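Progress note, project year one: complex with zinc ion.
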Amino acid sequence: MSTVTITAGHSNTDPGAVNGNVTEAEITTDMRNIVAYCLKDLGIDAITDGKGSDNQSLRQAIKLIKKGNVAIEFHCNAFHLPTAGGVEALAQPKDKAICQKLCEAVSDVMGIPVRGSAGGFKPENSGQHSRLGYVRNGGIILELFFISNPTELATYQAKKWPLAREIADVIAQHVGVGCTG
Ligand SMILES: [Zn+2]
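Model obtained:
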């Protein structure tokens, strides 16, 4: 059986970005759980950094990267202007292709732009990101959307299940399981 690592950005003690009463850590934990559920349906075991509302530390998540055929951690972007939006993925060049497929899937389901000129792929030294231990250790950081953008946040809340299914499909195809299409 194929095994993949799916982790939630931030942790039980670090909420990440916040918009009103919604925290990035809650969103990423939720998405981790739903994607893991969808993967199980496809016959893929997901190693996670916790079950239910548990969202273990980045240190713990990094230890899980090498246990999966691929490792993905969910995050949300944030910006001081509420109009900033879109999806992007940070990774090493070896993961460029799956990053582009993940970004395309998120863009299709949510109707939001793919950021940048490389299909959403960004190398680890780009931008003002400060959590790249995950990438340095071989994982992918998928910045799903901008939590600071109220339209994108509402779209996420309405579409998180179909979004998770599409993300799980991309992962399944990457590890050679499931349908194409
Ligand atoms: Zn984050």
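Residues 150-174 form the longest helix (25 residues).
The chain has one domain: 3-174.
No further modelling is planned for this target in the current period.
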